[in-house]
Amino acid sequence: MKIAIVHDALCVSGGAERLVLWMSKAFPDAPVYTSVYLPQNTFPEFRQLDVRTLPLAGGIRTERQFKLLFPLWLMLMQQQHFADFDVVLSSSTYLAKYIRPAPSVRHVCYLYAPFRLLWKPESYSPESLPTPQAASGLVKRASSLLRNWDVKRTREIPRIATSCHNMAQEIKQVYGVPSTILYPPVEVPSDFAEDSREDYYLSVSRLISHKRIDLAVAACKRSGKRLIVVGDGPERARLEQMSDSRITFLGRVDDIKLRELYRKARGLIFPSYEDYGIVPLEAQSWGTPVIAFGKGGALETIQEGVSGIFFDRQDVDAVVAAIQRFEVSSFDTGQIHHWVSRFNVESFINGLQTFVTTV
Predict the structure, then answer these.
(1) What are phi and psi for residue 343, nearest 5 degrees?
(2) 194 found inside a domain
């Protein structure tokens, strides 16, 4: 069975891009098709894979350039028919799911979430968009038309999988279709030092408005806590301006450095309303508890009182209060390690192989 993997774009180092690497582990002979590939901006492991881009992608140098030309990529993506393959696995939120495979090709989709810019445009600040007022202009002028088109095209996909119950419910609500739940995995180290924690909190995220890293920065600044921020994005300059000397911005780091930061952190602060969120699982895999916004995928990946605590409002007061509760709580590294072990690689790969190859 000849299988192709198709992903929206490889322009950042995010959870979806990490999952594509796991998809490639499940299907090591499958080429990875995508719109634009920026090797310097995403995970280095993609350099070892057969990555194939759309025509004209070679002229793109930044994520902003990619976003500005989104209509072009949408048009070109729909011209890809994959007639040489038996099955195409699209990995998508906003682009790859719109492929039009040849009639002889089965299309299955791992859908992370409904297209955020169409269904949740309010979550983007002007700094997080390629052009000012892009979201509001798009939604005001063509909201109904674009949403109807998105629903129609998504309903044409024969089989859909997604990351968690939270997303399955949202996909059902928006598109009216069921989806199979395949939890994205995390590599759980077999052993690690349990007594080498340092007095800092950690944030790991793309620095874009809907991730709400501003809450972590403001809360740690008010509380006088040390915070290390890993990640980059259009919000970085604004976040640095509102921080103080106890808050350090590292930008993107390699996996070795990231594992060290997870292992030594007092806790991870995760303030975003995530569809799923792989970062809390990565932190917990190193025995690090999480302070998280108690909605979305976090409710399925964090066990309150065992591997972390939740706050119920996305405001600074709530995060400050959560930090205070966190610091008088105790967490057992072994229990955290045991909890997160259920999100293992073998289960995901076996589940994905069954989902993709079952007729």
Answers:
(1) -95, 60
(2) no
Looking up tokens 């322009």, which residue turns up? 11
Taking the C-alpha atoms of residue 134 and residue 198, their distance in angstroms, rounded to an integer, is 42
Q: Which two tokens stand for residue 330?
A: 């105790």
Q: Which of 309, 293, 307 is nearest to 343 (CA)?
A: 307
Give the range of the structural domain holding residue 123, as residue numbers without chain letter.
3-185+344-357
pLDDT of res. 161 = 98
Compute how many other C-beta atoms are within 10 angstroms of the C-beta atom of residue 180.
16
Asked whether residue 236 is assigned to any structural domain, the reply reads yes
Residue 160's beta-bridge partner residues? 109
The token pair that represents 110 in the structure block: 């791992």
Paired residues of 7 in beta bridges? 34, 91
pLDDT 10s digits, 217-257: 999 999 999 999 999 999 999 999 999 999 999 999 999 99
Instruction: Look up the CATH number of the domain holding residue 154.
Output: 3.40.50.2000
- Extract the tokens encoding 270: 């995760």
The reported pTM is 0.81
Same domain, 151 and 221: no
Domain count, the chain: 2
For residue 70, CA distances in Å to 16, 65, 91, 93 come to 18, 9, 17, 13
195 within some domain: no
